[in-house]
Amino acid sequence: MTELSITTMGAQGDGIAPLPEGGHAFVPYTLPGERVEAYLGTPRQGAVPGSALSILSASPERVPAPCVHFGRCGSCAVQHWADAPYAAWKRGRLVAALESAGFAAPLVHDLARTPPGARRRADLGLERLADGRVTIGFHTRGSHELIPLTECPVLQPALVALLPPLAETLRSLSALKRLGAVVVNMLDSGPDLLMRTDAPLTMPDRQRLAAFAATHRIPRIAWSTKGANEVAAQHEPVRHHLSGLAITPPAGAFLQASREGEAAIIAAVLAGLPAKLSKRARLLDLYAGIGTLSLPLAAHGVVQAYEGDGAAVTALAGAHPRVTATRRDLARQPLLPAELKSYAVVVLDPPFNGAPEQVAQIARGTVPHVIYVSCNPAALARDGATLRAAGFALREATPVDQFLWSPHLESVAVFAR
Predict the structure, then answer these.
(1) Has 152 been annotated as catalytic?
(2) Cross-referenced Pfam families, in alphabetical order (predicted)?
(3) pLDDT tens, residue by residue, 171-199
(4) Single pTM value for the model
């Protein structure tokens, strides 16, 4: 056991303490200014993982966690931190990322907030216990152990209320032998489920799922097998509205985690468009998904959307006359400078690892405006540095807190040559 003084907060929400022999310890669930007694693990790549055994001197910023699962559930990292310093830390992560990309004194707006109980999407684990019962929940930090969710101040209450009857239904399914997962999206038409199990669905399984869907007004339950999704039970039509337009998302479709976060991202993207933009201007939306950004952009220009997932392209196709959706894997086949030159603005919302291949081509081209929607400050820093080296300046950036009390941060950065 070692006594440590926590000096700063790390990118993953761990308290960081300098070690007498050099290097740093990373201790979850601690705060800057605290002195703790900790157990230190084996160093990994210059960092020493720690575990706080007791708080010897607590920070005045420490508050009671609102969830009984905090400290075990791996979804939240900083429920024990007062709101003001927590928000400053999240905004500061975006500032630090842009500064590391070479943009001095970046203009970063205040943090756009998501309230508790607003998250509408969850990817949950399933586990059948020895007595046959089924556990549904998030994994513990750094392991495959599941925490059975009895409450969650982050998720929409309707999603939390669905879990006990879902667990009871899954108990009777022969398709779940040991482990599985379920993605739940709260669409306008109601909960939409995509299940992954470790055995095939039988006809009795499908009948039980259909009965569950009818009882709980779940329009669709889909099942993922061999990389493809099939409908296991359909009770009602599936619909969801993006910018006022109705679409039918594929099962397990990527949605922004909350309505509030989605609205903040859209507002920041539209605010980042050039002031003088013809309605005939050509706008490019890369990694477009089901059209979260394509559809609002269509009010400001003619939109070409590219997305690698075929089901998402199908959902977007035909949703708006000023949006054309095309399937393309932008990591393997990024748009080249000659393909980019006719566009006034490029908007991109890449996955967690960013878009180094596509940004390299943008940097080589002549596109004057780039709006980058990021879910990973480290990837934004890397790709932002590529844009800066190509002559882009940073106009403004907006941090968006969609994943409350977690280290995850969304942001919108506006670049112009």
Answers:
(1) no
(2) tRNA_U5-meth_tr
(3) 999 999 999 999 999 999 999 999 999 99
(4) 0.95
